[in-house]
Amino acid sequence: MKILLINTVPLEANGISTFIINSAKVMSNKGIDVTVLAPNIVNNQLKLDLRKAGVSVIEIPNRQHNPINYYLKLRHKLASTDYDVVHVNGNSTTMAIELIAAMKANIPLRIAHSHNTTTEHPIVNKMLRPMFEKSVNGRLACNVAAGQWLFNNKKYTIIKNGIFLNNYVFNTDIRKEIRNRYHISNNEILIGHVGMFNFQKNQIFLIKLLKKLSPKYRLMLIGDGPDLLTIKQRAIKAGIKDRIIFTGTVNNVSDYLNAMDLFTLPSNFEGQPFVVIEALASGLPVIVSKNVSKEINLTNSVKFISLKNISEWKSRVSIVRTDNKSRKKISLNNINLLKEKGYDTERNVMQVLIPFYRRHLN
């Protein structure tokens, strides 16, 4: 069985990429021929990591910059290899671009995998609906909300956003190393966030929040994206840039979570974010906006606060206290709970994803 996992966003530190990378590694380890297609130049370390795991990587130009060139290169790649499955990961009917290319290449199974609950391009999403329905013959979603959003009343299968849970056990040594690297003192409270710098992830809200907090609070923003420069400029204008750490894209998010004291996700819209599962596994307190799907409250400890109520965000952040001993216990308890609820990558790939492929191919 030859599988092509297509990412419709850059292959870097983001939720869709986490699913693709983790799933590809598990399948390759089980002897399945897996290739990942990325619409960007992939970080060399990540590329090496995937290739060491036996996963091939294809890089083609971003479809947003030149969709015609993207489509032609994609058609060429699909025609050059006899894939059994093309598994497209995104959040709207714009996945029709990849699905139509796969259909033209006579790929037997063409999957659309919904990772979110809305799109930034609603008009295009509506226009491409007929092409999407014509070309898709396998439907996956990260949760019910994402499935209903993209597939309406069509049948779909849920595959939960699993991670390699044991990699996220809280580690005090790694915490010290990361905090020392970025000159974060023991008295400082580090607010964390991971995500692409864009409208959806809404990092500008965290700039406003940090401005209202005392100087002992610092902010670590992990990721890259189109709004990065804007966010940096807003931080300078607010006079708090020296309290913010911009790490760029990292391949070892689990290490950085150890350094944080609190995780935040002020998204304008969100499906079932991997990074919240990662933060919970690391034992972090988590605050998210009310725009995030309630299905993410897997440990009954996630706090949902309206973006219109920044004073409540400030109050909730202000009561965070760091206790490494209790955090290790919380981390282990959360990991056990997440395993029970089906958020372990290997289990999900072996029990849901691979059987889904085989069932639809037979």
TrEMBL record:
Superkingdom in the source lineage: Bacteria
GO molecular function: glycosyltransferase activity
Pfam families on file: Glyco_transf_4, Glycos_transf_1
Domain Glycosyltransferase subfamily 4-like N-terminal: 14-131
Entry protein name: EpsIM, putative glycosyltransferase
Ranges of residues in domain Glycosyl transferase family: 175-331
Source species: Lactobacillus amylovorus
Taxonomic placement: Bacteria, Bacillati, Bacillota, Bacilli, Lactobacillales
InterPro entries reported in the protein's UniProt record: Glyco_trans_1, Glyco_trans_4-like_N, Glycosyltransferase_grp1
SUPFAM superfamilies for the chain: UDP-Glycosyltransferase/glycogen phosphorylase
Gene3D superfamilies documented for this protein: Glycogen Phosphorylase B
